[in-house]
Recover the amino acids of this structure.
């Protein structure tokens, strides 16, 4: 849920949709359920906080779901870029989130 909804916003916004898309990106690539806590350093955190800390520690490859086929290889730079885009989408501040057009522009060159 976007932070602004927790603060009382009740109307749908494009920025909230971008936040939700970022959550979906994390869920797809990590295999983690966004509404279940994740244990990190002995503390339960949400998927966004977990992802931010993992990225800050340069552990993006450890974030990838073990069930994703590595056949053909995953390129580390592409994985990092993908997670960084998801991180932009899930920014705490609405104004810092990219538009969906910008997200498309950033994701499009990454081979899938």
């Amino acid at each position: 849920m976007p932070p602004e909804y927790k603060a009382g916003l009740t109307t749908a916004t494009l920025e909230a949709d971008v936040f939700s898309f970022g959550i979906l990106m994390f869920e797809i690539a990590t295999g983690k359920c966004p509404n279940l806590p994740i244990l990190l350093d002995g503390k339960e955190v949400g998927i966004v906080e977990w992802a931010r800390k993992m990225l800050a520690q340069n552990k993006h490859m450890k974030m990838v779901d073990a069930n994703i086929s590595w056949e053909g290889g995953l390129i580390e730079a592409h994985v990092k870029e993908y997670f960084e885009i998801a991180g932009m989408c899930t920014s705490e501040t609405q104004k810092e989130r990219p538009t969906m057009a910008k997200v498309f522009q950033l994701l499009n060159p990454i081979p899938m």
Notes: The longest helix spans residues 14-30.
